[in-house]
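note to self: the first set is below, dont mix up w the second
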Amino acid sequence: MAVPTSGPTSGPTSGPTSGPSPELNVLGGPLEPCGTDPMTGFYRDGSCSCGDEDIGLHAVCAVVTEEFLEQQRSIGNDLVTPMPEFAFPGLEAGDRWCVVAVRWLEAYREGVAAPVVLASTNARALEVIPLSVLKEHAVDVPPDVSGLI
């Protein structure tokens, strides 16, 4: 069985050790939480923080879809099957999860990219994915929703 690269292989739960400066999101603001049910992040802290230990770059806060999960499974990254030994409950469509930037980009190229929460996506994702591509799949709710109604 292939070891998934987005989730179950996550590392320690103590948080990043890359320095005291706060991490930023792809929009240049403070990195906001991604998800806590299930608890996501390389550090299982609910955030897409990417410290030095996160060589996979779990930077993209995605709202996973059935199509995305199936595509990930087809390339050997099973995000559905629970793996308690990695504190991984298995994902369902609608869960918010910090996914590896390269894996999200692969799904994008195959036409099944999961929606992205930009405010919760680490700026380091831009090392792999252009901001314009992430914006195509953004599902953020703006702080002022009056323009939406």
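second set (the one i keep forgetting abt)
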Amino acid sequence: MTVLLADPEITAVPVADAGEPLVPVPADTADRDLPRPLVRRGVAARLAVAQLLLPPGRRLRVVAGYRREEDQLAIWHRYAAEVARAYPFADEDEQRGASRTRPSGRRRGRSATC
């Protein structure tokens, strides 16, 4: 079963900011054509290690990182409105199910963030 980050069972989990500093992702994991996303320092360290463990010729490409809560909520609301427009006669549960079957390439910005 797929569970989206915007599902009520996920959004009901309380989030506490541990205060870990935000830092740019390691340069070799960033998309070369975009600004380097910000992630927590521990995430940046784990990304650097993961990059080193990849086979030669492969590299991570991090295109999104930390988002302020209001920015993430705005993304969810825009996407919910898009799904509601695409399925105007569906109820909320049906729209949530429809959002799980949309092609992932059309959901830019809907990614897990750390």
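remember for set 2: The chain is about 40% helix and 5% strand.
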